[in-house]
Every structure is written in C-alpha cells, then in structure tokens.
Design goal:
Rossmann fold, Alpha-Beta Plaits, six-stranded mixed beta sheet, four-stranded antiparallel beta sheet, 28% strand, binds adenosine-5'-triphosphate, nucleotide-binding, transport, AAA+_ATPase
Length: 301
C-alpha cells in the first residue's frame, strides 16, 4: 500500500496536508498521533469511506480513486466499531458475513477463528464477549476474504492491559503467518510500540517522522546522565571547554546526554581534573520521550 501526497480539505480547512508513505507486506505499521491529528480522516480516505481531495492511495497496484473495487478487495478494515449481532454466536456472525462475500469456505472461517485465538469461545453469544474478544471477532471478520492489508483504527481503545497484550499477540501473529500488512492507529505510543515494526507520527495533518522501532531503540542508547560533582560550575565550564557535550545544571547536578561508552570517559576527565564526584545517576530515555520530542508537546491527551 502506498499513500501518494494524500490531502484532505474540508470547507477551507486543510486537514491532511500531503501524506506519503509505503506499507510493506508482513509489517505492522503504527499510525501515531495526538487526538485530532488526522488519523481517522486518513484511514477513511485509505478505505474509500471519504473522498480524497488530492493525491492517491495505491493498493496492490490499484488506485482507490480510479479502481475502487480492484483496490478495496485487498483491504480488510475495522474503522468504526465492528458490527456484531449480540444474540448470535461468534461463529454465526462470521458465517453471516461470509455469506455476503464470495468464495469464503467453512475452512477459511475456522482458519480466521484460530488466527485470532477464538476457538474456545466461538460458539458463545457475541454479546457475552469481552471488549477484547469483540475486537478479535471483528479482526476475524475483516480477514475472511484474505486481504493483503488490514487496517485497524485504534484497536486498543478501551482495552485493559491484558486485552492489549492479547490483541498485540494476534496482530503480530497474523502479520507473520498471513504476511498481511497491518496498519494500527493510536494516540498512545505505549499501547502500540511493542506490536509495530515501524511507526509513522502524524501531527496537524502532516507526517513528522517515520521511525523503525529498532532505530528508536538505538537512539535510545543515549541517556541523560546526572552527575553530582564539586565544584559544580567549574566542572560545567571544564566539560564545555574540553568536550563536545552540552552540559546543563539541574538541582545542583550536571546533566549530560551520553551513550554508555561516554559515561566513564567523562567521569575520568572530571576526576583527572581533581573534581570530587559524589554520585552518578543514569535516567532511561523512553520511547515516550522520543515521541514527545517529535510532536513537541508534553502531553498528548
Ligand atoms: N467533517 C469535518 N469537518 C471539519 N473538520 C473536521 C471534520 N472531520 C474531522 N475534522 C477535523 O480534522 C482533524 C482531524 O480529525 P481526525 O478525526 O482525523 O483526527 P484523529 O487523529 O483521528 O483524532 P482522534 O484520535 O481524536 O480520532 C480534527 O481537527 C477534526 O476536528
């Protein structure tokens, strides 16, 4: 799937300002941004629920604008809450949806049930399912026609931590087993970081970064190091004059961003210069910090 300079204007308000990125088979792509950033609008355009103002979405070589049918048959999506009949069992719900499509065999239904881990509960009424189970039934339904792309808008919304863990497990499974490209949107990094291979961060209708989780982890190797040293100001002046590190003072401690390898070097320099080092604290820099840095806010809710 490819987004090419996708834009949406409503009235005279530019909501999506030209998004371009690719999503590959077998990867889980996180579409992350604060509320109102434009995730749902983008997803609605991606699945043809909303007209595209400018640009295009290409799915398996087909344009959603010019060949809607050809493009959309490769897509499975849950954009709004999946529609379920609470008085029917999970299985009956799936059979019902399967009848509306062509060529879905009972074997395929069984296969999607196993893919989302609902084998045991599939003959119970859907109305008795937990929210997480309902989400998984929705995913099973979206997978029936073997889409190559699965789009899930806020799949972790409202789930408790164990529900999030389960969804994560099944989403990763199906990316790997079915080689599906999965797009999950979220406004909370912590809820999707463990299930995604890459994360695209959107703010005010613009893509401000695409990070592979590995590269975020590598950058995370730089940590804030707090050093309690005497005399403080001379230590700061000395480090600024003799090293390339930016040094600040916080609560009577020096604060530097250092990699693990740099920590003993800096300490040796200070001790060699005759400074007294009383303590060193290393603060973990989290993915969350990175996200805040990128979107330029301290709070995203
Ligand atoms: N029909 C509309 N008319 C005018 N503005 C709209 C319309 N639909 C959405 N918007 C605006 O577009 C922006 C993006 O909304 P969108 O729902 O896509 O954001 P989102 O990232 O999905 O946020 P959320 O997580 O809250 O759903 C918001 O500022 C919203 O107010």
């Amino acid at each position: 799937m490819q987004l090419i300079d996708l834009k949406k204007t409503i009235g005279n308000k530019s909501i999506i300002k030209g998004l371009s990125f690719d999503i590959k088979a077998g990867e889980v792509f996180g579409f992350l941004g604060p509320n109102g950033a434009g995730k749902t609008t983008t997803i609605r355009m991606m699945v043809g629920l909303m007209n595209i103002t400018e640009g295009d979405v290409i799915i398996q070589g087909k344009s959603i604008k010019n060949d809607y049918k050809g493009a959309i048959r490769h897509v499975g999506a849950i954009v709004e809450n999946p529609e379920m009949y609470p008085f029917m069992s999970g299985m009956k719900n799936l059979q019902h949806f399967a009848r509306m499509m062509e060529g879905i065999t009972p074997e395929r239904i069984q296969e999607v049930v196993s893919l989302v881990g609902l084998d045991k509960a599939i003959h119970e009424k859907a109305g008795r399912y937990s929210l997480g189970m309902r989400q998984r039934l929705g995913i099973a339904q979206a997978l029936l026609h073997r889409p190559s792309i699965l789009i899930l808008d806020e799949p972790t919304n409202g789930l408790d931590p164990s529900g999030i863990r389960e969804i994560r497990k099944y989403i990763r499974n199906l990316a790997e087993q079915e080689n599906v490209a999965v797009i999950v949107s979220s406004h909370l990094l912590s809820e999707i970081e463990l299930m995604c291979d890459r994360i695209g961060i959107i703010k005010n209708g613009e893509l401000i970064a695409i990070e592979s989780i590995k590269s975020i982890e590598v950058q995370n190797d730089v940590k804030d190091v707090h050093i309690e040293v005497h005399p403080l100001e001379s230590a700061k002046d000395f480090l600024e004059a003799h090293t390339a590190h930016k040094v600040t003072v916080h609560k009577k401690e020096l604060v530097l961003s250092l990699t693990k390898e740099q920590i003993p070097k800096v300490l040796k320099e200070l001790i060699h210069k005759g400074m007294d080092v009383y303590g060193v604290r290393v603060l973990q820099s989290t993915l969350e910090d990175k996200f805040f840095d990128l979107i330029g806010e301290n709070t995203i809710e």
